[in-house]
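Appendix B.2, paired examples.
Example (i):
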Amino acid sequence: MAFVPGDYGIPKDHAVDLALPPVDDGSPNPNQADQPVTDQVTKPLVVDEDSASVAVPQTVKESCGPVRNGGQVCFGRPLKKPYKIPKAAEDSKGAQELTAADDSGGAAGIADWCDDDELVARTLVCENREVPVYYRKDGEVKATVYFIFQRLIELDGVNSFEEYLTVKPVSIPADFAQIQLGIYEHLCDSPCTPVESDPSAWKGQPTWTAGDMHTAYIASAYTWDNSTEGQTFEFKPDVQINGIADPVGDETIQTVGYQWSLGGSSGFDVIRCDTLTGTASAGCVVPNYAPTYTFNAAKYPQAAAHAWLIQHEMPNSPGLESADTPLYYLPGGRDGDNRDEICDESGWARTNYDPDAMNSTSDDPNCDEFSFNATYNSGGMPADLGGLNPVSSGSECAQTFAQMDNGTIHLRNLPGTVPSFNEVCGRSAISGVQNQGSMAAFSAGCSYHVDEPEPSRT
């Protein structure tokens, strides 16, 4: 059987002793590009407080058009779930639950989960908003229309990304002869450039009459300049929607504008793009999303068991998804200095390893450190450089090694050491094949091409 984190409890008054399953060389590696969908905002670590931007609370207001002959149309503040018609718009039966047309629009086939709510994956951001449209006459609300606006951002290109804006009507009362929506323009800071689609690109006409429930969506693109290596950019792509309303009984056609960024912040509205991979073709990610790296515990049980030990038995639980304690990426680990700090004693792994626990006679022992050296969570990362768990030597970490015992490999505490289970790091003398193989997909399967503390979990 494969090593499954959580199968082994360790009494706090005993030494470490994890019995590991046999190596399953045929176990397929997890698809690291298959990242989970979440609504949890996990912001990157701020190391330099002086350069940190201060978040200013945003007041979401109505967006109103001009008053014409006493009439005015406004996009109201987005409603909160569960969506209900506000008190002022109730009929005699009381509040009504709102349900939209059963159509995923532009998200279909790209992110089928997009209808669920405000969700994000590594390169996909989806947000749904229930937005009322009020018609006022002489300051009094006479009629209300409800739409669901759905916006999906897909980071699918090396120097571009796509937006799919879907409009789903919820309620079009007879008070309106017609309502027409359209894209006024897109916004994005340089060197990001919106590429506006022709209005004919709408799938389903963005025009509705009373009782009409069809869905309409349009795809638009953004490009960014990736011609220079070593650059990082933060973009906040934005869209302005234009509305034209024809209220029944009003001789004047009313217009109104709605800007996405002024309707509230999801925490996922910023996109980071860079060319830091050594080529001018890197790409973009959602910086407030923490990707997950999955160990192949069946194929590399020694490395998986060591990570499990530190994550589950130490108070800081580094990189443990269930504890919401992400690792923060540090490319290169200070050019190896973090690793030197933890595996600091000359030949530490070779001095403390069991040859019988190696994968083969040609397998060399490795000092496996956890948290990884290429993170701010590493015990070797100094506090004055932003380190979260600094120690002065690897001897302050929990020290273990892989040992063969009667045909079974165990992960055990190093002879002469007994962990206190208050350590913030670990080092272990294990198989080099196991150690290196367990992390081989780290750069190959995920887009870890950023130069600041990026959150991730294991």
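Example (ii):
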Amino acid sequence: MWGKEDKTSAADDAAAGLHGMATGTYPFLGRMDPADFTRLLSRAEIALGTALLLPFVPSLPAGAALTGFAGGLLGLYLKTPGMRREGSLRPSELAISKDIWLPGIGLGLVLEELGHR
């Protein structure tokens, strides 16, 4: 989908496709420009990944952010046609399995931090 570009510099058609998929599940995103949405998503992914890697970022906010982000991805999975088999939670062949692991990791970080308090 991205070729030599990435989300930070996505072509108009790639940004429109990503934005269109997101607005199908989250209509309020329709007010954003597709290129702006794609750049913001890219920056959020980079910031979240950085927070998870830096040892001085506490587990609670990093895990909460990951859980929230993963919740958004799971919403896409549940509401986007073609990502699940009809009438079932079973994924179609297009589903991305990492989206199921992310909330578990995020919740694990949150619970670990809360358990130390």
